[in-house]
Amino acid sequence: MRRLILFRHAKAERAQPGERDRDRRLSERGRADAPKIGAYLVHHALTPDLVVVSAAARTRETWQLAASAFADAPPAVYEERIYEASPQAILAVIRATGAPVGTLLLIGHNPGLHELATLLVATGDVEARQRLREGLPTSGLAVIDFTVESWSRLHAHSGRLHRFVSPRLLEAATD
After folding, report:
1. DSSP per residue, 145-175
2. pLDDT of 20-44, one tens digit each?
3. pTM of the model
4. Which of 132, 160, 111 is nearest to 3 (CA)?
5. Distance between CA 99 and CA 37 in Å, rounded?
6. Longest dimension (CA), the chain
7. Residues contacting 66, CB < 8 A, separation 6+
8. CA–CA distance, 165 with 75 (Å, rounded to integer)
9. Which residues of 148-175 are buried (b: 16+ CB within 10 A; e: fewer)?
10. Taking a C-beta distance cutoff of 8 angstroms, is the pair 132, 120 a contact?
11. E strand map for 45-126
12. What pLDDT, in 10s, does the model give residues 50-65?
C-alpha cells in the first residue's frame, strides 16, 4: 500500500508591489494554521517517510511550522517542479518517488494540488469526497491511499480518500 498526503500551503500574504509570487510569505493566519496541521498529522500517526516541498517561500515556511510538531521531523526535499505545476507535472514527481517511501507528503499549490486530488480519488467517504471536490483550501490536507506496488503505477481514479481536513473543519469539529 502507498499513502499520499497532499497539503496545500498555509494562507499567504498578498504580493507586495515588485515582489515575486514565489517569495510571498505566510500571513498571520497561515503561521497559526500550519502548526495545527502538523499536530493533526502527529496525533493521527500520519508520519511521512519523505516530504516533497515546492521551492516557494510559503510552502517552505508551511513545512517548517508543521514539522515542529514532530519529535523527529521526516526528511524533506525542495522541488522546483511542483511550483505552479499542473496535476500531470506533480504526478510525474510522485511517480519518480523511490520504492522505500510508503507514505509521501507533498506540499504545494492550487490549482494543481486540488486538480490532482480530484483526479486520483475514486472512493472513500462520500461527504469528504464532496468537500474535496468543492476545493482544497489553504492548509487543506487530503490523505489518499493506493493499493499499488510502486509509485510509478499511480494512475487516475485509483485512490481511496482516507481523510480530508482543514483548519476550519478541525475548528468546527471541536465546537
Report:
1. EE--SSGGG--TT-EEEEEEE-HHHHHHHH-
2. 899 999 999 999 999 999 999 999 9
3. 0.95
4. 160
5. 26
6. 47
7. 7, 34, 35, 37, 38, 41
8. 23
9. eeebeebeeebbbbbbbbbbeebeeeee
10. no
11. 50-54, 76-79, 103-108, 121-124
12. 999 999 999 999 999 9
Phi, psi of 117 (to 5 degrees): -60, -45
Greater confidence (175 vs 12) lies with 12
Question: From CA 69, how far away is CA 63, in angstroms rounded?
Answer: 10
Give me the amino acid identity at 43.
H
- Sketch out the chain's domains with CATH numbers: 2-11+23-174 (3.40.50.1240)
Taking only the tens place, the pLDDT of each residue in 102-129 is 999 999 999 999 999 999 999 999 999 9
Q: What count of Cα atoms within 13 Å lies in the side-chain half-sphere of residue 65? A: 25
Give the number of other CB atoms < 10 A from CB of residue 28: 9
